[in-house]
Amino acid sequence: MAKIWGMYVGVKLAFELGIKKLVVESDSKCAITLTQKMSPEIHGNSSLIRFIKEFLIKIEDVEVKHLYKKTNFCADALAKFGQEHEAKIKF
């Protein structure tokens, strides 16, 4: 669920900032599959997945791809840092 939430926050932020070209990378094959191929109604987080899909459609050029966990170490470290310091970070 955390990977799906992270994807939602990132895609929403990209849309709100008016980013026209976006590459979404995740080490969660499940999150990639849910947002790219499967109907979200069969998943417990169907509303969140539907929102992600809606934002992805609104962005001009989007590439969504799976990364292996070792490759995604930096993003995981930043996500952990952000989660630990959430109250101090302002956009």
From TrEMBL:
Residues annotated as domain RNase H type-1: 2-81
Gene3D superfamilies: Ribonuclease H-like superfamily/Ribonuclease H (3.30.420.10)
Pfam families reported for this sequence: RVT_3
GO molecular function: nucleic acid binding; RNA-DNA hybrid ribonuclease activity
InterPro entries named in the record: RNase_H-like, RNase_H-like_dom_plant, RNaseH-like_sf, RNaseH_domain, RNaseH_sf
UniProt-listed PANTHER family: OS05G0353850 PROTEIN, PUTATIVE-RELATED
Protein name, as recorded: RNase H type-1 domain-containing protein
Organism: Arachis hypogaea
Lineage: Eukaryota, Viridiplantae, Streptophyta, Embryophyta, Tracheophyta
